[in-house]
Amino acid sequence: MQELNLFIVDDNSLVLTNLRNYLNIRFGNDLKISTFHTGANALKEVNKDTDIVILDYDLGAENGNDVLKSIKKINSNTEVIMFTSNDEIGVAIESFRNGASDYVIKGDKELKKIASLINKIITYPIRIMVREFGISKYLAIFLLTFVSVGVVVFITMHYMN
Fold first, then answer.
1. Measured at the alpha carbon of residue 139, what is the angle toward residues 1 and 30, in degrees to the nearest 5?
2. What is each CA distance from 29 to 2, 72, 152, in whole angstroms?
3. Is the CA virtual torsion 87, 90, 96, 99 positive or negative?
4. Which helix (H) or strand (E) holds 80?
């Protein structure tokens, strides 16, 4: 499986460190994790290869929803998980309207919730194949691996000629 590019954007250094360490232990080489203290710094790095962003709503002088809108303009396929201590329903609704994939409130079991959401993003193609085509999970994994290797071989052969 190809590693996914994951950004964590939070102005709290302790949150950045704890979340990064937890996800490194949980996912290992499946994720390439970059951390940012400001939305502005993260936006300089967001591109078509940015798969997941875990984004704090309250970034001091910055509003997470403004950063979210900018991320979606750069790459509409980036999965953005709002990760905040703000439990106001209006803020959550605004985040979803701006393209957030999910909204996690900091507190009890926050790390497990984030890991669960990332796992769902990683295994999405497998779930689609199982649900839509009724094949077993293991056959879906085999097929996706086979197709991925085929694509790599095709691209390699194409560029070597």
1. 15
2. 9, 26, 19
3. negative
4. strand 79-84
Give 100-153 pLDDT, tens digit per residue.
999 999 888 888 889 988 888 777 777 677 667 888 777 877 887 888 788 888
Distance (Å, whole) CA 103 – CA 120:
14
CB 81 within 8 A of CB 102: yes
Cβ atoms within 10 Å of 36's Cβ, excluding its own: 23
CA angle 24, 43, 93 (to 5 degrees): 85
Burial (CB count <10 Å: 0-12, 13-18, 19+), residue 114: buried
- Please tell me the distance from the alpha carbon of residue 148 to that of residue 150, in angstroms, as a whole number: 5
Q: CA-to-CA distance for 88 and 18, rounded, in angstroms?
A: 24
Helix axes 110-122, 124-133, angle to 10 degrees: 60
* pLDDT score recorded for residue 29: 82
Cα separation, 118 vs 99, whole angstroms? 16
Residues 21-69 have pLDDT tens digits of 999 999 888 889 999 999 999 999 999 989 999 999 998 888 999 999 9
